[in-house]
Design a protein that fits this description.
Methyltransferase, Cobalt-precorrin-4 Transmethylase, Domain 2; homodimer
């Protein structure tokens, strides 16, 4: 009988935001696999570390965080057969994934390669979007609000049409797109409705009104934008909660 | 010194999907408060129960789940001063909230009434949307997909414009709007791109392709719709993962 493949959502970075289920799977799995950046660091592994044991085998998926269209594809092509060999031998493999595995998660790379061949279970996690709202004490949405999540990598027209059709918006993965997105929001006259959140739940966490930011942002940064009419959310945007 | 107000996200219903932080706050708070439906049941309290102690005081917020525009406003008007009295006396109060407190959460009612007066902290939780994707083994979004969350209570034009401006969509709170929303999706020719998920993480959980559903749905039901081009998500929609 083959082992089971787990995609384990670890939440945004705060080690207290792991779920009980994630900690159980991390303790029980024979093998853990995790993405490793070019510099040799793994945020996912560092979040999971308190729950790992010395007898577990580890498979590092060595990524090259390049700007090519499909970064890390080669790394997943190399990692998939190593993980498959463990599953074939009857060992459970837990793949560590920041945030939620099925919400822009890196786990999709392995799910596409192995999910149809092995019994697969996904452990949902707290998204960085919900964590950013909690951290800034600024609700995301209520009642009939439409809520859109948009990668900053999108072209202007795709961003604009989605922002037009929502009351609340989270724009993720800002990085080198930050100045363009910030200008887009300014052009819509929505800067005073926007909150900037950087590295939520990680070292170097920072939140401030969008109008007070500089011209650059890291990849792990997002903008929360609220165009709706919910008084409690409008109050929170401009209230004393942010700092 | 006043006590602290906590909005505690409990996740979708599975008791293993609580975060470590939620379980700590539930253990430490002097007082817990939770919404109670007309029938005397509290899903939130039942999720939290294993972590509550006999010495904690409890404040039940007695809701009447009516179809009026602002259900339960009166219940929150009554509960807020009771909670404020505990906070004034220096006691921490944990308000239990299914899912995530700031993502269509009932906690917003108390945040609006008390958040500006007392030190307030929100503990983010796993959303039922991420839990439904995990349960159906059907990823929500990847790469440059735009993801929209829409309450089924919206009028057709508001739903249509938002669906047009997204690659992936979750439609929540179906209840009496189910037949209309289902017909809307059929009219767009997207039925075979849609998954139905009911009471995820709760007793009576059920998932199936939208085309195989009947004509009614409970309030705690959602539709996941994928219009994008990610091969792994398209495979999962029609693959053996759903059952």
């Amino acid at each position: 009988m083959s082992g089971r493949l787990f995609g384990v959502g670890l939440g945004p970075g705060d080690p207290e935001l792991l779920t009980l289920k994630a900690t159980r799977i991390l303790r029980e799995a024979s093998v853990i696999a995790y993405p490793l950046s070019e510099g040799g660091a793994s945020l996912a592994r560092s979040i999971a570390e308190p729950h790992l044991g010395p007898a577990q085998r580890e498979i590092a998926i060595e990524l090259c965080m390049s700007t090519e269209r499909a970064p890390g594809q080669g790394a997943y092509d190399l990692a998939a057969p190593r993980i498959a060999a463990e599953l074939d031998a009857g060992h459970d493999v837990a793949v560590l994934c920041e945030g939620d595995p099925f919400f822009y998660g890196s786990f999709l790379q392995l799910f596409a390669r192995l999910g149809h061949r092995y019994p697969t279970e996904v452990v949902p996690g707290v998204s960085s979007v919900m964590a950013a709202a909690a951290r800034t004490r600024r609700p995301l949405c209520a009642r009939t609000d439409r809520f859109a999540v948009l990668p900053a990598t999108l072209a202007d027209d795709a961003l604009l049409s989605a922002i037009a059709a929502a009351e609340s918006v989270a724009i993720l993965k800002l990085g080198r797109h930050f100045a363009r997105v910030k200008a887009l929001i300014e052009g819509m006259g929505l800067t005073d409705r926007a909150t900037y959140a950087e590295r939520i739940g990680q070292a170097g966490e920072r939140v401030l009104p969008l109008g007070e930011t500089g011209e650059t942002a890291p990849y792990f940064a997002m903008i929360l934008l609220y165009k709706g009419a919910e008084p409690a959310i409008l109050d929170a945007l401009n209230g004393p909660h942010l700092r």
